[in-house]
Amino acid sequence: MLAYEVARGLVSFTTGGLRKYSPEDLNVLLNALTLVQREIRAETVPVDDTLLIREKNQKLQRLSQAVGMLNTHIRQRRLHA
To answer: How confident is the model at residue 79, as a pLDDT?
Structure first.
């Protein structure tokens, strides 16, 4: 799933790259990203394991940036996802 690849940092979005997606695809992608974001937030990480905490926070940051970019793209293109 593309959303998991975004979380791991394997895929990133650009505004030019988002143009090839249809409004329906963007809506599905946005829903998938928010679903994965919720799953990662629900994961419990030991307080003393700083590497796992860092990895979890990096995944959440990547997802948050992707969701923000998608929302901005949808709003600017007036696609009403």
So the answer is: 63
Dump pLDDT digits (tens) for 24-37: 999 999 999 999 99
Residue 30: CA count within 13 A, CB half-sphere? 20
Quick one: average pLDDT of 51-56? 96
Average pLDDT on 50-71 reads 96
Count the domains in the chain.
Answer: 1
Q: Give the structural domain span for 81.
A: 52-81
Look up residue 21 and give its DSSP letter.
Answer: S
> Which residues neighbour 63 within 8 Å (Cβ) at sequence distance 6 or greater?
3, 6, 7, 33, 36, 37, 40
Inter-residue contact 55 to 7 (CB < 8 Å) = no
Q: For helices 50-77 and 23-42, give the axis angle rounded to 10 degrees.
A: 160
